[in-house]
Specification:
83% helix
């Protein structure tokens, strides 16, 4: 690929760029791509302390209510899901950090695009939409039952739950889910637009090779 061809590609990203060498343009292209990939990881990275905090809560609350089998089962199920999510987030972050630019920009970009495509438009693209409601319900049960100071089955038969708490769940849960899913859909559209940018950049690299 000649310098002027790389120059033409890069002008689609930054119209003010001055004439640079091939190595410099390669570095700029990879840097721009990495900026986009970093955006994909920000949400995952912020999920790490949330998952860790939730795991600490589950350990403490389970230890205090170890004699309530249903409560313990609820916490174990929730903990398993959170551990899976935490493992996935850390694995993706670690994989990205280990990603080396020891290959041509086009090949490196193609590898990263394929991985992001599996996440955003692949078979498991809707997994967040299924897991989040489950985590929410199990978390609410864990917190509510713990502070009620009743056994798991007794909570839902108590007058307080029937007359007060249940109506709070019925009213606020749909509102919370509506806000949450709206945010997820907006975020997913933004991420898909970024993915399309990377694909366009890769296509230009292929066309000018």
């Amino acid at each position: 690929m000649e310098n002027n061809e790389l120059q033409l590609i890069w002008r689609t990203v930054n119209s003010d760029i001055k004439q640079k060498s091939r190595d410099e343009l390669d570095l700029l292209l990879s840097s721009k791509a990495r900026q986009v990939f970093t955006e994909f990881l920000i949400l995952n990275i912020t999920a790490i302390p949330v998952c860790i905090g939730l795991m600490v809560w589950l350990l403490i609350s389970t230890a205090h209510r170890i004699d309530d089998r249903l409560y313990v089962a609820n916490n174990i199920l929730l903990g398993s899901i959170v551990l899976f999510a935490l493992f996935y987030v850390i694995r993706e972050w670690y994989r990205f950090k280990r990603s080396k630019m020891d290959k041509p920009v086009k090949e490196w970009l193609e590898t990263e695009i394929n991985l992001l495509s599996k996440w955003l438009i692949g078979k498991y693209r809707r997994i967040n939409f299924y897991i989040i409601p489950i985590i929410y319900i199990l978390s609410v049960l864990s917190i509510h039952v713990y502070y009620s100071e009743l056994y798991f089955t007794e909570v839902f038969r108590s007058d307080k739950f029937i007359n007060e708490d249940m109506w709070g769940f019925i009213i606020f849960t749909p509102i919370l889910f509506a806000i949450l899913y709206y945010s997820l859909i907006k975020l997913r559209k933004h991420q898909i637009n970024k993915l399309q940018f990377l694909k366009d950049l890769h296509d230009r690299l292929c066309n000018y090779c």
